[in-house]
UniProtKB/TrEMBL annotation, chain A:
Coiled coil: none annotated. This is HD domain-containing protein. PROSITE patterns: HD (PS51831). Residues 61-178 form the HD domain. One of its GO terms (biological process) is dGTP catabolic process. It comes from Peribacillus saganii.
Automatic annotation (TrEMBL), chain B:
This is YwgA family protein. It comes from the Bacteria.
């Protein structure tokens, strides 16, 4: 029997708190799960620094990847199978792409990518097509199979229906992470009737569409996405931790570039710092390695690196005030910048504006000018209509623009009157802390 | 802080006005690919390279009052027109941004059709592939646009001309941002 069609003698099941069980019958999927590159995802948290706000949010990217696989498997095997628009020959490819879609994520990847100009999607592709255990498994299916998997994940595969299962405005990726993140953070929003959505999904030439009768379930999904954005993903405390983490990486980079002698050589960072990172070096990075350095840097001579690491490890985060960047406020920010320098608190690391556009999450968008493909409802007469044109609730949410900026700073340093007392008082007044 | 916002304002200010969100997305993507220092992350979507980060940044700039967005009804869809407000010009004055060659590139791109810019941006997105594979990607992923080989040749020639302008930027010294 061809490897691609080989089934396990007995179905394997993983107990899962979101989907109850994750079912694996295909030999290829089972082998992929056992690769070291996939197992590495256990050591990378799905929500990065969110655990510092919601202590339950310790779930890994491996949990999520299995969840996405399970949703795609159910869509294909329970809903699409036998429908003329669906090509069963794309089944294994879809399952592999779902399982491996986050393979290139690094530890705290959002901060990492910003500071070191890396791209996890680039590494996902490199891991899939490069000299790895994952690639060895995929190649047994066919010489060009790894490339096809990489193309689906990169959204450049020719069959757009397959791509849309994993990447669209109502895809398996979002449906899993919304529910999983809600479960592990413990929040009450984020839940929606996925069973119902799966039952009303229909394959079309270029995308998955939703039967009109399922519109209310989709409304619920859009609402949950909206709530999770503001209540979890964009939580100001999580952003504070993210700001400090980013500044740690900036500081380490700056120190390296200026010839600073670290007490212990940060060997895992060298290829990143020189902009020359191979896949094998990238795969060695995980959160355990990161925390190892953060802990030893708590004892570094450099006061800024030492302080930032202590703050991150011990959760002594920056405080924040709302910041509306009008020209007046921008002048105030410049004034604060000068005062911070006078107070010997380096504003490059201790005075930071964080904006909603800095986050890797998004709202539903109707795609009015062909920017992104929207969610389409399938009407009884066979016509398709964009969701917000049919749903007043979705129209209300997607039509309103809400953005947010916060100014972060170490409040404890500003109340430390042992030095530069008057300047710090001026700063506190400007920040309206007193 | 807000340097990335300022760069976007600078780009729209240089172009005078940009009509269409899709066009704006493609212009910034192309400018980034030909080495201008825009930081927004782009991914390939149904209609080609797209940056959610850029969309959010534009929304923020509109909310801040630095960009003016005019919504116009077209046949079957809405179109958005962007220009820089007086406050936006003041904001720009607070940031030192100098990308002289960008102005020329932007003016040029702004005169092209959104359809052509979609082709140019798709070709640039796959610029690590050999030309025959790029053509295959364009003809399969953009099959509904029915691009011709002649248009592909025009796209390559256009990219070369933009890169020449970009080189002028490098010759004149790196962009100040």
């Amino acid at each position: 029997m061809a490897y691609s069609a080989e089934k396990l003698k007995e179905e394997k099941v993983f107990k899962d708190p979101v989907h109850r069980y994750i079912h694996v019958r295909d030999r290829v999927i089972w082998d992929l799960i056992g690769t070291k590159e996939f197992q590495r995802l256990r050591r990378i948290k799905q929500l990065g620094t969110t655990y510092l706000t919601f202590h339950g949010a310790e779930h890994s990217r491996l949990n999520h990847s299995l969840g996405v696989y399970e949703i795609v498997r159910r869509i294909i095997d329970d809903v699409f199978k036998g429908r003329p628009e669906w090509d069963e020959g794309e089944r294994l490819l879809s399952l592999c792409a779902a399982l491996l879609h986050d393979l290139g994520h690094g530890p705290f990847s959002h901060s990492f990518e910003k500071v070191f100009d890396l791209d996890h999607e680039h590494f996902t592709r490199e891991i899939v097509v490069g000299n790895t255990e994952v690639n060895t498994v995929l190649k047994r299916v066919g010489e060009d199979f790894p490339k096809k998997v990489a193309d689906v994940i990169a959204k450049t595969y020719q069959n757009k229906l397959v791509v849309s299962l994993i990447s669209s405005q109502i895809d398996a990726d979002r449906m899993d992470y919304l529910q999983r993140d809600a479960y592990f953070t413990g929040v009450s929003y984020g839940h929606f009737d996925m069973e119902r959505i799966l039952r009303v999904m229909r394959p079309r030439e270029d995308q998955v569409v939703i039967k009109q009768s399922g519109m209310h379930a989709v409304e619920d999904y859009i609402m949950s996405r909206y709530q999770m954005y503001w209540q979890v993903y964009f939580h100001p405390v999580t952003r504070s931790a993210e700001v400090i983490l980013t500044k740690i990486l900036h500081r380490a980079k700056h120190l390296y570039e200026t010839g600073y002698k670290f007490q212990q050589e940060p060997v895992h960072f060298y290829s990143m710092l020189t902009g020359n990172m191979s896949v094998s070096e990238y795969l060695k990075l995980d959160e355990a390695i990161m925390f190892y350095y953060f802990q030893i840097w708590e004892e570094e001579e450099d006061a800024i690196l030492r302080d930032l690491c202590r703050r991150f490890v011990n959760r002594n985060l920056f405080k924040y005030v709302e910041f509306h960047p009008s020209n007046d406020q921008m002048n105030k920010l410049m004034e604060l910048n000068k005062l911070f320098r006078k107070a010997a608190i380096n504003p490059d690391y201790y005075l930071v504006v964080d904006s909603s556009s800095d986050l890797p999450y998004d709202f539903y968008r109707p795609g009015e000018e062909e920017e992104r493909l929207p969610i389409h409802l399938l009407k009884k007469d066979g016509d398709i209509r964009e969701l917000s044109r049919e749903s007043e609730i979705v129209d209300a949410i997607s039509g309103k623009r809400r953005t947010d900026h916060k100014l972060y700073f170490p409040e404890d340093l500003l109340w430390d009157d042992s030095a530069k007392k008057n300047i710090k008082k001026q700063i506190r007044r400007l920040l309206e802390l007193e | 802080m807000f340097k990335d916002h300022a760069k976007i304002i600078h780009a729209i200010f240089s172009a005078g006005e940009i009509v269409g969100r899709k066009k704006l997305q493609k212009i910034i993507f192309i400018a980034k690919k030909i080495s201008f220092p825009f930081q927004e992350k782009f991914q390939f979507h149904f209609y080609g390279p797209y940056s959610e980060e850029l969309t959010l940044r534009i929304e923020e700039l509109c909310n801040m009052g630095y960009l003016d967005e005019v919504k116009e009804k077209k046949a079957g869809y809405w179109q958005y027109r962007y220009s820089v407000t007086e406050s936006g010009k003041e904001f720009l004055g607070l940031h030192e941004i100098s990308m002289p060659a960008l102005d020329d590139c932007l003016m040029d791109m702004n005169q092209q059709s959104a359809r052509f810019l979609e082709l140019v941006s798709t070709v640039l997105y796959f610029d690590s592939l050999p030309p025959e594979e790029v053509a295959e990607k364009v003809f399969t992923l953009k099959s509904k646009q029915n691009y011709t080989l002649e248009e592909m040749a025009d796209a390559y020639a256009y990219i070369d001309s933009l890169k020449q302008k970009g080189l002028l930027q490098q010759a004149a010294g790196r962009a100040t941002v």
